[in-house]
Amino acid sequence: MRHRGRRIVLILAALTALLAASAACTRRPSQPPPVSGGTGVQTKKIRYGPFNVPNINAPGQFANAWALPLVGIQVENGMVSKPVQNAEKPCQDCYLTGMKAGLEFADGSEATISRGLWLHHMVALASGNGKKDATCANSALSLPHISVMASPNNTERFFASGNERTPIDLTRTGSYGYRVNPADKFHLLVELMNLNTTDADVYLTVEYKFVNGNAAGYRPVTPVWLDVANCWTSEVPAQAGQYQLNGTWTSTVTGTLVDGMGHLHDGGTHLTYDNGGQQFCDTRASYGTTPDYVDPPGGMAGMDHGDGMDHGGGATHISEMTKCPTGSSLRSGDVLRLTGYYDDAVHNEMSHNGRLHPVMALGLLYYAQ
Predict the structure, then answer these.
(1) Which residues contact 233 (CB under 8 A, 6 or more apart)?
(2) So what's the pLDDT on residue 218?
(3) How far apart are the C-alpha atoms of 262 and 280, rounded to whole Å?
(4) How many angstroms separate the CA atoms of 332 and 181, rounded?
(5) Short-list 264, 270, 266, CA closest to 312
(6) DSSP letter at 356?
(7) Which of 24, 17, 240, 64 is nearest to 73 (CA)?
(8) How many CB atoms lie within 10 A of CB 132?
(9) Helix (H, G, I), strand (E, B) or coil at 80
């Protein structure tokens, strides 16, 4: 236990040095004004960046890379991973009713797999009075929060996206939203990948839908993040063949599900949630449903991701994940279980240096009282 405690102290010290130097907010161009909808809902798309993503032959850009092995993170070619503190908010006193992430070039065209760019993942966090991460608040160490110099006791993960870019809609069953207060601060974790032979400048985008904080009838939601490697890196070693990944959490939240999503890496087939053994969601992956999620013929200039990440010409990748049905109930003390299903006989997993690339199985559920 003494050695484990010393290791945690070393990790915290290294991460503090790492992030204090690198987590300043990326400058953004001026943003267009919000667009109002007919029911008081406004829409605002914010560009975060630009982010310079190194080419496939160039070392990845991870701030103070010397410290990353302490937390088991491998620096790979063609990638950039960056925390962004004090990111722009779409509104000051409001309820967020919908969110969708994207990736685009300076001219506004989409940056997709077919053009060699990946939105590997992004996570949005909010700090402020009453913000508390449901599943990591009692953790001794929470890397997502440390990465933006915050604590899970005053900061929560409220939105995330992988390359499939699943939209969140908190109004599927009524007037619900994620509460944003004037003093709240937003932060981002952004990881991007470039399979081209030239560097690329791209912008992370988030399209927010929101109503004013005094909008009649709106009620707040609580985001619940479930993860097979929760409060850590979210990635776990892949396996060959058919296998499952599991994560559990004993609830401190009571409410009714108003929206929910799941995220897997290539090779994944579906992800389920159950409460006390009763399944209430089965979110399924689709591959290559649009040309944007298909590698071009010949692959990306014959390159492998970091000397071994195979992306052959014509390969398909996860393009959609179905959403959870609404209406299931959760009570404090219930045991939620997340299960991610992988089968490389159905969909190929990625490999790196002859080894399978780490995988994820995670998701966000939104509950309202």
Answers:
(1) 71, 72, 73, 143
(2) 97
(3) 13
(4) 26
(5) 266
(6) E
(7) 64
(8) 15
(9) strand
3-state secondary structure of 2: helix
Triad 256, 257, 262: Cα angle to 5°: 160
Say whether 67 sits in a helix, a strand or coil: helix
Average pLDDT for residues 166-192, to the nearest whole number?
Answer: 97
Mean pLDDT along residues 303-321: 64
Q: Which residue has the higher pLDDT, 47 or 61?
A: 47
pLDDT at 23: 44
Q: Return the DSSP state at 54.
A: P
- Which pLDDT does position 26 carry in this prediction? 44
Give every CB contact of residue 13 below 8 A, 6+ residues apart in sequence: none
Strand partners, 81: 62, 191
Question: Averaged over 7-28, what is the pLDDT?
Answer: 46
**160, 122 in Cβ contact below 8 A?**
yes
Chain mean pLDDT for the chain: 86
What is the CB neighbour count within 10 angstroms for residue 107? 5
20, 69, 243, 226 alpha-carbon torsion, rounded to 10°? -20
Token couple for 197: 């032979």
Dist CA 336 CA 253 (whole Å): 11
Closest CA to 113 of 48, 162, 57: 162
CA distance 316 to 320: 12
C-alpha atoms less than 13 angstroms from C-alpha of 244 in its C-beta half-sphere: 8
Confidence band for 301, pLDDT divided at 50, 70 and 90: very low
Structure tokens at 49: 């960046």
Total Cβ atoms within 10 A of residue 142: 22
Half-sphere exposure of 193 (CA within 13 A, CB side): 21
Q: Read off the amino acid at residue 307.
A: D
Cα(330)–Cα(325) distance, integer angstroms: 14
Strand partners, 256: 329, 368
Omega before 297 within 30 of 0, i.e. cis: no
Rounded to whole angstroms, the maximal C-alpha distance in the chain is 60
Give whole-number Cα distances, 1 to 6, 30, 141, 146, in Å. Answer: 9, 51, 15, 22
Q: β-strand 318-321 against 255-264: which pairing, if any? A: unpaired
Phi, psi of 11 (to 5 degrees): -60, -45
pLDDT for the residue 368: 98
